[in-house]
Amino acid sequence: MQYYVCFMASDSWSDPPNKAICTTSSNGIRPIVSSLPALWRFMQCLRSFYDERKFRYLVNAVKYFTTFPVIVFATLFSARVSTAFSLEALDVENVDWIIILWGISAFVHALYTFFWDVYCDWGLFQLQHCTLLRPKRLYSWKSFYYVAIVVDLILRFSWTLKLTLALAWHVDSDVIYTALVAGEMFRRFMWNFFRVEYQQTLTP
Predict the structure, then answer these.
(1) Helices 97-115 and 55-65, interaxial angle, to 10°?
(2) Which is the most buried residue in 40, 56, 170, 197, by most CB within 10 A?
(3) Which of the two residues, 177 and 105, has the higher pLDDT score?
(4) Beta-carbon neighbour count of residue 99 at 10 Å?
């Protein structure tokens, strides 16, 4: 969407086309579009809390709010790499406050959303029953649940792969980004099955 809107709205029709105009985040389209889903859900949670006064909605709103610092610091980091120094000059000893704050905010967001997935949306981690699962389950194989927990954890923290490759091997490409997006699509696909299954167990 970022590339399409930028290409249609900017002067990148020259021969040869100026690809740099629409492949960077400096135009502001990517962070704005990336923020919209979380912003809408954040506002929905606040409205639900206002209508029903249930604390759960407020906690859920915080989950979506943790998305915004990640987008802000990731955008600032991308702008710094493209203007101040190249990715090849980036290493562990050369990181600054932007990438540190990006890492902290991404870690908090990943941990918060992982816990929400497993505990709130799937009803697992039932410590009062001394088990990671729950007494009532519709899927007969327990391994389904354990595999789903591990996969969700890995995919929630998949952003660390992108950061590690950038710091250690100076690798940052659309191929990696596409792979991470495909992983996120699979995670959401998997999430649906366990979310519906858990909701079904709550039905009298």
Answers:
(1) 140
(2) 197
(3) 105
(4) 21
